[in-house]
């Protein structure tokens, strides 16, 4: 593999921020995803070609994002991504985001490569990623694996119908789209800055499915986020109570 980190530069657009002036949660994930997909195009092949010709798809299982500095409209940012050594069928991917020389965001994610014909996992030994940018796994101050504690009281917050523009080439709700949908249920969202987002993607939400959204109260952060004043958990379900995703947001008072 190539030592180093694959960079891409962007300027944040005004409509990518919310009423607090901060970058929207979903847009953060979209920028990370865009950088990863462009790295794939440059160092491997276009993702559409991978899906249509090789019948393979990358699917994320976990995404952990730590926000060190809020980003705003017209900020110039550089996002870098890279993969790391691992075993079996796990394809880890790390990110960092700089605004000028200031570190704004760090992130770590786990991905699987799926054979879409056989519906099976592709092992690392079965797919050549030797041309990918490579480095050590990104270290975070938040856990990269978590479970909602069993004694956490969750209540139904709402239902989201998965519509056409929520989905991607796989026909499921795109992983980035969950963040805004969930964050809209946070009490008094203008009162908080997001310090972290942690997602465990368990099962897909297909087009035209109805996704039940359950949420906790605002809770002490404990070991989920050392920079947060509060955290909040979400869990979603699709079709006959099938667990879809679990998420945790770290929040700091403005």
UniProtKB/TrEMBL annotation:
InterPro entries: Acyl-ACP_TE_C (IPR049427), Acyl-ACP_thioesterase_NHD (IPR002864), FATA/B (IPR045023), HotDog_dom_sf (IPR029069). It comes from the Bacteria. Residues 160-216 form the Acyl-ACP thioesterase-like C-terminal domain. The keyword Mitochondrion does not apply. One of its GO terms (molecular function) is acyl carrier activity. CDD domains: 4HBT. Residues 5-123 form the Acyl-ACP thioesterase N-terminal hotdog domain. The keyword Lipid biosynthesis applies. Keywords: Fatty acid biosynthesis, Fatty acid metabolism, Hydrolase, Lipid biosynthesis, Lipid metabolism, Transit peptide. Belongs to the acyl-ACP thioesterase family. This is Acyl-ACP thioesterase. It comes from Baileyella intestinalis.
């Amino acid at each position: 593999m190539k030592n180093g980190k694959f960079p891409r530069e962007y300027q944040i657009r005004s409509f990518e921020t919310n009423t607090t002036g901060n970058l929207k949660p979903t847009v953060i994930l979209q920028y990370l995803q865009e950088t990863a997909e462009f790295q794939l195009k440059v160092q491997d092949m276009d993702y559409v070609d991978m899906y249509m010709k090789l019948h393979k798809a990358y699917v994320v299982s976990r995404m952990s994002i730590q926000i060190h500095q809020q980003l705003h409209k017209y900020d110039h940012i550089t996002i870098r991504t890279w993969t790391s050594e691992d075993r079996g069928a796990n394809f880890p991917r790390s990110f960092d985001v700089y605004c000028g020389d200031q570190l704004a965001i760090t992130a770590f994610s786990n991905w699987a490569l799926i054979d879409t014909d056989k519906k099976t996992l592709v092992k690392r030994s079965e797919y050549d990623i030797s041309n990918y940018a490579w480095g050590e796994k990104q270290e975070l101050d938040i856990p990269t694996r978590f479970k909602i504690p069993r004694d956490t009281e969750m209540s139904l917050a709402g239902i989201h119908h998965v519509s056409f523009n929520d989905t991607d080439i796989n026909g499921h709700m795109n992983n980035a789209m969950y963040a805004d949908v969930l964050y809209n249920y946070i009490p008094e969202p203008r009162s908080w800055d997001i310090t972290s987002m942690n997602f465990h993607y368990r099962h897909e939400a297909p087009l035209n499915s109805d996704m039940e959204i359950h949420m906790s109260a605002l809770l002490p952060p404990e070991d989920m986020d050392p920079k947060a004043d509060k955290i909040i958990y979400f869990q979603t379900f699709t079709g006959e109570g099938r667990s879809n995703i679990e998420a945790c947001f770290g929040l700091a008072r403005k």
